[in-house]
Amino acid sequence: MIRHTVVFRLKHKDSSAEEAKFLVDAKILAAIPGVEKFEQLRQVSPKNDYRFGFSMEFADQAAYAGYNDHPDHVAFVRDRWIPEVEAFLEIDYAPLS
User: Which alpha helices (H) appear in the chain, and where do they start and end?
Assistant: First the structure.
């Protein structure tokens, strides 16, 4: 299993219509084959300035690779993520045992 996570800050103003639209449109990622347990999260720690997080799981590396290469993911990254995300940190986890 691979848990793919990303925390990020948008270029949009907090609680703006643009912010809300980005989050709604990002739900397309949940429909990509292989994606399990897709979550959108609000980051609440005062220890960093990221605002949101996405988390999802994949059964294995092949499922994760299929997601990465899927046309809907590629288009979302190109058309929405790159132009609208100001900063992010991506972490992919696999269980230790």
Answer: 17-25, 61-69, 71-76, 82-84
Q: Is the pLDDT of residue 70 over 90?
A: yes
Question: What is the sign of the dihedral through the CA atoms of 85, 61, 43 and 28?
Answer: positive
Tell me the average pLDDT across 2-7.
98
Measured between alpha carbons, how far is 94 from 10 in angstroms, rounded to an integer?
27
Q: Which two tokens stand for residue 33?
A: 């084959």
Rg (CA), the chain: 14
- Let me know: does 34 contact 66? Beta carbons within 8 Å: yes
| Domains of the chain and CATH, by start | 2-93 (3.30.70.100)
Tell me the C-alpha distance between 62 and 25, whole Å: 25
* pTM score of the predicted model: 0.92
Contact 58, 5 (CB under 8 A): no
Specify the pLDDT at position 97: 82
